[in-house]
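Here is one chain, start to finish.
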Amino acid sequence: MWFSTLALERSLGFVKLSIFLFFSFVMTFAQNPRPTPPVEADVERVVSEEIKINFSAFDSNGNFVSDVGLKDIVILENGRIHEPSSIKRIPASVLILLDVGSEISYAKRRSITLNTARALINSLREGDSIALMQYGEKAELLADWTTDRASVLSRLDERKLNLAKRSAFFKALIEAVKFLNEQGLSNRHLVIISDGVDSFDRSEEKKTALQTLFSSDINVHVVSYTAIQKKAIKEVSKNSPFRKPDLPPGAEPPLRGSTPTVSIATIDLDRAMARKRKEQIEKLQKSESLLTEITESTNGEIFLPDSEEEMIGKMVQLAENIDSQYTATYVPKKPLAESEEGEVRSVEVFSRRQGLIVRGKRKLVVVKRAF
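Its structure:
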């Protein structure tokens, strides 16, 4: 009996020791897990490339078509046919960029800019995300992404705009594209309310801005001040107190000495102002051409109103265009990874379905990005 009790106690002790050693091993292993084997340097990366392009869809009467499918469209890239891999209609993400610089300010007014932005926001579809950015000499975020219209509208206050003497358009464009790219959104739209004049006009900054924009899938729309500004400058020149009066047809100019003498200083001042106004009109014309190129290359549209009422009234049309767009994707037959830096591709959407009218076209610049 004694032997049995002693054997039992030894057996229990052995079991306790075994349990202790087992848990000690488990704890040691947990604290020192097996190291993950290093990834071999020559492992091949498989990159799945998809390119996005937006397009609008209407019937012959101009009404929006809401049932576009994969078989209804075809995509041409540099004239080569591609089948769409997906078609979606999702709420838009709209960044509104407000120009508050005063490089040329004959007709550009804060109140007009704000009322135009308000008209656009109130016309967009419920569920669209909206953000606000302003720029003068630098770009500043006024309102981050939100679907709350009231919240965005509350930021459109003249007291919250930082007016500046100069306009850094290209720098602001770089910041706007960067902001849109950081969000990882689809169906992205940038609406610029500006005359597009850049006070600094640095060639490298311009090149960077356009390349960054054209390598994205952002749709750019412009509400331009250029026509209003040019009209105002011409009116000011016409009403200048130093302007020579228009003579009736066939009339002779007055004889020397028959009219009051005008000082040389006044004439020089008038000539200097006339030269400056001419340069400003040339700047506006150059800007208008660039803004038109940007919108045509990014599946957008440009508005060139010649009055405040027309500018504000066009926002209903712009909102309808933004909210009637689909986002299509396709896999390029020539991989982007095999393209040279800066290669330009022309992408356009065409209809295969009778009675369906589509509009979607953009220029794509290939930019190599590191993984």
